[in-house]
Structures are given as structure tokens and as C-alpha cells.
UniProtKB/TrEMBL annotation, chains A, B:
PANTHER family xrefs: D-2-HYDROXYGLUTARATE DEHYDROGENASE, MITOCHONDRIAL
Known cofactor(s): FAD
InterPro entries in alphabetical order: FAD-bd_oxidored_4_C, FAD-bd_PCMH, FAD-bd_PCMH-like_sf, FAD-bd_PCMH_sub1, FAD-bd_PCMH_sub2, FAD-linked_Oxase-like_C, FAD-oxidored/transferase_4, Oxid_FAD_bind_N
Pfam families per the UniProt record, alphabetical: FAD-oxidase_C, FAD_binding_4
Every FAD-binding PCMH-type domain range: 33-212
The name this protein goes by in its record: FAD-binding oxidoreductase
Keywords, sorted A to Z: FAD, Flavoprotein, Oxidoreductase
Family per similarity comment: Belongs to the FAD-binding oxidoreductase/transferase type 4 family.
Entry-linked SUPFAM superfamilies: FAD-binding/transporter-associated domain-like (SSF56176), FAD-linked oxidases, C-terminal domain (SSF55103)
Organism, scientific name: Reinekea marina
Xref: PROSITE patterns: FAD_PCMH
Amino acid sequence: MDILNSLQTIVGQSNVLTGKDVTSRSVGWFDSNARQALALVRPKCTVEVSQVVRLCYQQSISIVVLGGGTGFVEGSISHEHQVVLSFERMNKIESIDEDNRSVLVQAGVPLQALHEFAQDHQLHFPVDLGARGSCTLGGMAATNAGGNEVLRYGMFREQVLGLEVVMPNGEIITNLRALLKNNTGYDIKQLFIGSEGTLGIVTRLTLRLRPLHNSVSTALVAVSQFEHLVTALRNLDRQLGGRLSAFEVMWQDHYQFIIDDGQKHQAPLSTEHPYYVLIQAANYHDLEADIFMSALEACMNDGIIVDAAIASSKAQQQAMWAIRDDIERLTTGLAPYIGYDISLPINRIAGYIDQLQTAIKSQWPEAKIIVFGHLGDGNLHLFIHVGPTLTAKTKDAINHLVYQPLANLSGSISAEHGIGLQKKSYLKYSRTQEEIALMQLLKKQLDPKAILNPGLIFDYSER
Amino acid sequence: MDILNSLQTIVGQSNVLTGKDVTSRSVGWFDSNARQALALVRPKCTVEVSQVVRLCYQQSISIVVLGGGTGFVEGSISHEHQVVLSFERMNKIESIDEDNRSVLVQAGVPLQALHEFAQDHQLHFPVDLGARGSCTLGGMAATNAGGNEVLRYGMFREQVLGLEVVMPNGEIITNLRALLKNNTGYDIKQLFIGSEGTLGIVTRLTLRLRPLHNSVSTALVAVSQFEHLVTALRNLDRQLGGRLSAFEVMWQDHYQFIIDDGQKHQAPLSTEHPYYVLIQAANYHDLEADIFMSALEACMNDGIIVDAAIASSKAQQQAMWAIRDDIERLTTGLAPYIGYDISLPINRIAGYIDQLQTAIKSQWPEAKIIVFGHLGDGNLHLFIHVGPTLTAKTKDAINHLVYQPLANLSGSISAEHGIGLQKKSYLKYSRTQEEIALMQLLKKQLDPKAILNPGLIFDYSER
């Protein structure tokens, strides 16, 4: 085929995979189906990406962009008539400017590689999430990844100083300036961050780094009322002067479900309390560990926190995080389940969860609803299991029960994970018609042939 | 005139100013010329803004949007055939959510009003700048304002959770959700932030608030080499765990020029040092004042800081800031002058300034070049005086000397102030042709009749 020859000319024969080399790969972490594609191409630089995209544009072949394949929302499914553009060879950290605290990377660099690189330079890249070994920085920019330290440092968007993007027609737009302040017209990079690869392909990034802490203080605490969670969050965040980096709440059912899993975890606290919070703060000075302790003590004296376990070693810190991070226990123990990633203003969370539990249990009395999340950001993860089978119809019914109330509560149907194909029929609960029309207009202008990641976020076809 | 009647029908007779009521106003703080306009209208709500814009759109009358009129870059000049849309009546703080730490405001609220309101609720809005009494939050969003605390909290963009915008055809796009995390398709608000009112008109905003500190620690220190400035910044930022909120550097000429102004200021430090830095950190706990002192002492022991004055009272803090903030001394003492607001990676600053001083002094040996800025953000302000007269030709020559080298140094011709009319012929030094073409494409799609703030940032006409 002509197109395969042309692709080989651009990236080299060994970097155009077809047939079994494609189908032997799965779609991603959360989709074990065999990947389908006309070809999977592995460019080594921006110019090759640009040439591949230009070729596809000319031939009206659509492109699915592939980072680490760790997305949750069916964002990188490909079909046998599509070209998959994989960033696996564009995994170089190109340069670091320690004085300026910035780093220039290719889009295929995995998150963990940047963590380690930064740490070697006594610096810190403050986005972290479970898929750190596989997820790529380009994919994280395209999806505006969140994770564990958003409370303190913001989403991925706020770490991006500069971007290089290949447009749907192959044009390269480069602005990799490592500047915190740059008010010279429209901040174009913002368009591409979080657009799930539908407007342009991120090829390189300039990212902001932060000072590395000396140590972290970690505690697992128990709280008896939702209102006290809010108070504890506000008191601790204030007393720690913004150094609070995690405030991860687990509802009782969640904590119990993980702890009851036999030998795997030791319980730092008994399972009788309504809420558990994993609290973490970074320390840059020895005195700050004392401040952490005194802030916790103040909350206990006020009755806002009813029990607390303070990690006194790195092993104890890891054991506490292992409880919070034991997603495998949920995915296996609750199968079949549906997972959610929503957000809403903090003082609406308790009422929303109560209402949702009632609504679901009235239809499925045996349902299990596991709730946990980054409360500091209003971000909740839900795992819902209603019985041994889960039909598409049931799934849709539960989706509506979860998503519909968010519209009136000014919430979001996707706090971190994005929309992809999976959530697009529920987008209306979070965005107005006018907003969706504006998104479609932008897509139409920037990608008139709908070449890039077609079908994600909203429906759009060449008109 | 028909149009005036129609405007009066929308906003009421007393809110359509014409003739003397318009010309008796100046263009803005930095332009004392009389304002010209077909009419200056003062809507009281978003619906009125929308109706005014729709009317102008239908009649192809262009609109100049007016906040506090404190911009530096000729962004709100209007002509006698244009409608000026003033936000002076849309100055209400609509609601606060203390638990969620967010506030909903109309676009015409002055910055200082929000500071005071937040403080009354034990919260902090972390953007601050000299024009605080007049500049409006809508204008600050439209221009992505910077200021004093960017090092810690980021630009205005990072404080915006939600926006309501009136589009050039009068359509209202509202997303005022108070969410830190919301990955539901394109983050449309980012398009409007920093676009200088050329793509849509900000009418209401949801802003993020932060915990209020207990106190601040302030010091003025002297540094003998530029490299030590960089080291001091990095050491202090690390040791203060991110609480460092100001690192304002004054080059010797600047400090001397202000101090030499007779009775106005007392010098906390002698004027013999090459650099002076005003350092400030927020404290949330008593121990943090000790950490501030020990971090400064460590820098002094290492010889990175050669002299220091620590403010021991609020009056002393204010006196130190008064030196940094005495812009009047510069504007009067250096008249005629040109002011600049540039940024570049921190380790390129010293070389750039040396080269610039040489280039300017070779043409104007008597020139005065005053340099100061937010070094933590790579942001420098320059005041350049070359002699008793300043022709347009000289101005342009100096502009090129300042701006041209920034292109190769990956700098920015405008860190905070924006482009407006004033800097648009130099935009090419900071943005590529492809970037400017993309900006023009966005303008063309969103404002096809070029109704809003025409002429700002780049040239664009209806095609």
C-alpha cells in the first residue's frame, strides 16, 4: 500500500507496525481488546510527527494519538482504517535549567522518569498519580492530568510553561519559552491543554519545577462528621501555610472494604469511624514537622479529629498510602463495577452522596457504593457495584443517577479523567449548549477535516 | 440618533453618556487626553451588556471595553464612532463560599474591594498591584494581571475558577462553577483570560481564595553579585517551603535614585551595593518567623547576602515597600522616559542588562537606565531616560534595542502589561508567525466583524 510506504519513508521501516505487531498490543490499561490500526507509527522527533500528520491530512486518514495508554475514558481506541501515532520513541528529557527551575521534555517521557530526573537535581515535579510509570507527559498535558498534589500546586495545566504542537495539517507551532510571565497575546497553549488531542498533538513541553522538600509528614486520622472534615481541611491548610499536599478522604465503607481484605493491610485505626483522612504535608525545615504535629493536636483538642495515627517511618507512610491506593482491591472485589471521577463544591458533597446512596439502594438494595477522593479539590472517586451482572442499560441508568444531580449542584462529571468516548453523552450535565457549540466551532476551525482523535469529547463531523 | 435611543432603552437614559460627559473623562491613568466616544454606556448586569453588544453587532459599531482604565499599553483608547462599555456599575461581590474558598464577583469590582472583603472572611485574594484601588477584576482577567505574589500563587489566570463572557454577537456563555478540577472538554475560559477583551467581554467571575496568613516577615537585603541573587532566591524559596511571596530586586542605580530623593525615604541600607532585594514571606504559625530569620542568617553566613535590614514593625515594612513602590519618583525624576515590562529566564538577565546598557550608552552616553523587578518570576521593569526630549523615532529605536535581543534569549516583550496598541509592532520578537496567524484565526472566528477592542494585539480586519 502506498500509505505504508510513505509512512516508512518518514519514520523508517521498523517504526511502522502493522498486522500482528499491532493486534498483539492491547488498546490500553483499561481495555484489554486487541488494538486495531492501519498502522502504528513511532516517530522520533517533531519533524517526523509533522510529516506523518501532513501525509494523513492530505489523504484524509484520521489519527489516534497514543501516550502511555493509561487513560480511563476510552480516549485512545483506534480502528483498522486509522493511523496510531505513538510517542514511545520520543522519550528524551532534553535539558534542564536549574536556576530557572524549568525542564524541556519530549512528549513521550513517562512521568516517573521526570520525577527521578528532577529529584537528582534537588527539584520536584509536583504532579503525581498511580500510572506514573507509564503515563506520558504529553498525554498528561493533552488531558490536563490531576492527581495527588493539586490542592497545593494545581493541575497539570499550571505546570506547563511552554508547548510545541503539531496542528492537524502538519504545521508546527512552537512556544517553549520557560517564562512564568508572558502576556504577549493569546495564551495559545491553553487551547491544547485538556483538549484530549483533538486540536493538535503535543510534541514537546517546557515544564515548571519546584523546590524539593526535606521530608514529608503523614498521618491517618478519623473524623466523625462530614462538617468536621471541612473544618479540618481548612484549619490544617491554614496552619500549614499552604504546605498541605494531600487531604485524601475515605468514607467508612471504603476503609473497611480495604482493611477487611485479610493479610494485605494492617489497620492503623479501627474501622468504626464514618470518615478517614490521609493527610500529608511537605517539610522544608525541621521545625515544620513540629508545626504539623501541633496543627493535628489542635484539631484533636477541638474534637474535629477523633483519632489519629502519625507515620513515624517511611515504611509507615507507605503503608498508609497503600490503603488509599489499593485500587486493585476495589476493581477485583467489586467487579463488575462502574468507576466515577466527579467534583463539586465541598459543602454540597455530603448531601449529594446521601441522595445518591438512597437513589441507588432504592433500585439495587444490595449495591455497594465506595466513596473516596481528594477532598481538598472537591474531587470524589466512586466505585459502584449493583450486582453480579452489569448490562449496558443498567450502566446508563446508574450513570444518569450519578451525573444528573451534578448539573444543579454546579459539579463536574469529570474532575480529572476527561470525557473521551465514554462520557460524551453526559457532557450536557456539565457544559451548556453554548459552550459545546463553541468547542465545536474551535474544532471545526483548527481541525476542519476531523483528522485528530475523531469522536472524542463531542460529536463532530466535517461539514 | 437612533443608536443612542436604543442604548438608552437598554441601560436607561442616565447611563448613556455623550458629549462633555465623555470628553471630561481622560482616556486612563496613563493617558490624560480627553476620551472620545459615540457614547459611554454603563450597564448594570450581564443581560444589559449582552443587549448593548448585540445592538452594536447588528449595526457594526465597534466597542471598547473599559475597566479601571489603569492599563499601560494603550488598551482602552476609544474613538468618536465607538461605543465605550464601562463596568463602573457592575461592582458587586455577589456571594462567597467560605468552605469552598471561592467568591463570585461582577467584572467591575475593584481589586481592593475584593482584598478587603476576603480579609473580613479570614481569606486572602493573592493578586496585588499598585493600581489596586481602581483596577477591576474583569479587566485583570482580560489582561491576565500579574503583580507582587506571582512567585507564590501564579498570575490572575490561576485564580480564575469560572467566567461568564458576552460574545461579540451578544451571546452569553456562562461557566461560573467553583471547581478546582473540571476536565469536561475544552477549558474555554482560558481563551478569554489575557485576550485583552478582543474575543469576548468578561461580565462575572468565580475566583479562588486562599488562607489568610497571621503575619508577614519582611527584609531588605544587599547582594554583591548577580549570581548570588539567583542563589539567594533559590535558597530562600526552598527553605521557606514556598511561603516566599516577594523577591523584588532593585539594581543599585534604582535604589540610589529613590534614596537620593531627599527627605522622602530613610535608607535601611547604605547605597554602595550592586543589588538590593525586598524579601517577604507570609507566616501562618509563630515558628515561621524564626524560620525566616534562620534562612536569612544562613545566606549571610554563606556570603550570599552581605547586609540585611529586617523590618520589626508594620511601619518598617511599609517604609521598605515604599522604596520599591515609589514609581512617582521614577516617572517625574526621569521624564521623559520609556517604561518596559519584560521577562526572560533568570540566568540570562545579567548578560541581557549588561548588553542593553552598553548599547544604549553608546548612543546616549548620558542615559539613565533604571532596572528593578520581580526576579522570582524573571520579570524586569525598566525605565529608560536618554535626554530632555524623546521623539517617536528615538522611542522606536530604543524599543528595538530593548525588545530585539529578547527573541534569541527566549524572553518576552511583555511579562505583565499586555500588548494593546503600544507594543503590537514588536510582537514578532516574542511570538512566531504561526502563533500570530493562529491568534488571527481565533479572532476571525469568534469576532468576525472585529467589533471588540479592534486593533489591539495584532492587526486584523474583516475579510
